[in-house]
Records
---
Amino acid sequence: MNKLQIFKNAEFGEIRIVEVESNPYAVGSDVAKSLEYSIPHKAVRDHCRGVLTWNVPHPQSPEKEQEVLVIPEGDIYRLIVKAADQSRNPVIKEKAERFERWIFDEVLPSIRKYDMYATEELLNDPDLAIKAFTALKEERARRIKAESTNAILMHVNKTYTATEIAKELGFKSATSLNNDLANRKIQFKQNETWVLYSKYADKGYVEIKQDVLDNGRVIYHRRWTQIGREFLVKMYQRKAS
């Protein structure tokens, strides 16, 4: 796949795919539109981590180029997960699931398919055979990595209480863990709520939700994200070693 490929679907429209260093990247706005994000470019910037700027043929004037944002497989999955998670409309959730199946069961496999029909040619040209099988081996490795990434992303929205993480890390209680994190200058207490220092605040380690009681009092609930959990686990593993 050396140039732009366009995949069409009656339900999802068109998805443009380009090759970046031998890996398939999708035009981010195409994916976001298919998943019915109200502001596609904002969804790409908010939820994707591997965004690249790329030039593709202009839809109306193929002789001209258009600058677009393209995203790797992991970010395609992030947009799918976020669409299903954030929408309260069950129709959108079901559509996100169908889009996932189309992309990962049809579009990407069709890009990766290696045709090995030239058996005689391969047998007569050892160098060609080595190149072909090396490419196949690399492709299989990429596929395994992608499947592993998808499995991880399936749990990207899971959050954890301090009690759960404290137990995993061997602390006696959430209080012990929170006090230790305070001593390490990772968090501090403000209005009875633990808050991360600015160095860690924008990394997506925690989610804070608020509840308003009948008497008007506001209560804040903080939970660690999967990213935050991994940060803590790695930090304490380094300490132990």
---
Amino acid sequence: MENTIFSELKFWLMMIASIVMPFGIYSYLILKKAISKKTTLIFGFALVAIAGMDVYFLKVLSAAAKLSPSLADDTIFVSEISLALYLVPAMFGGIGVNIISHVLIQHLDEANQRFKKEHPES
């Protein structure tokens, strides 16, 4: 077997973290009839963390691809195609930030409503 990035555990861990975990989170959020703000917030932070971990793994795999004798991994991790790989973590990170922002805005709206009830003179 040729010495390639695709046979390394790091690559498969990145694939699991990049694809399986975020879609598992999305599935849970969509299928759940009721969900707490805390759980939603945790999933939002998890998506941001997964995105950061993906970027780290992409950097590590890119450096390893430069050193490997295989041309297949050079085609993906060292060429211009590698830029497209960074779109996946950017998307997941953006969705995570959007989820966090949604929970924060909802909390601030509720806090504002409580303030108006407690201080009607304001």
---
Amino acid sequence: TARSKGLSERGVVLGHAVKPALMPVVTIVGLQLGAVLGGSIIIEAIFALPGLGKLTVDAIYSRDFPMLQGALLVQSIGFVLVNIVVDVAYAYLDPRIRYG
């Protein structure tokens, strides 16, 4: 119906097709970012790379509970921030979704 109202092909695609098509992309990107954050622990431990994952594994092995709590807190904040970005992107892409 947008085409019959006089919108150009580009206007129809950008205004009416791209936003709904991005919803699954945003979902997958959010899930993949969470997997990257979780997978960094394993990758850094296997390849002895310095980073938050290796710090977490070293804290587990040495029973350094305050360091472990801090590292897990930082990782949890990362997961929460990714989820907030995904939720904001959902609200932008689909105006029917409202939070509050």
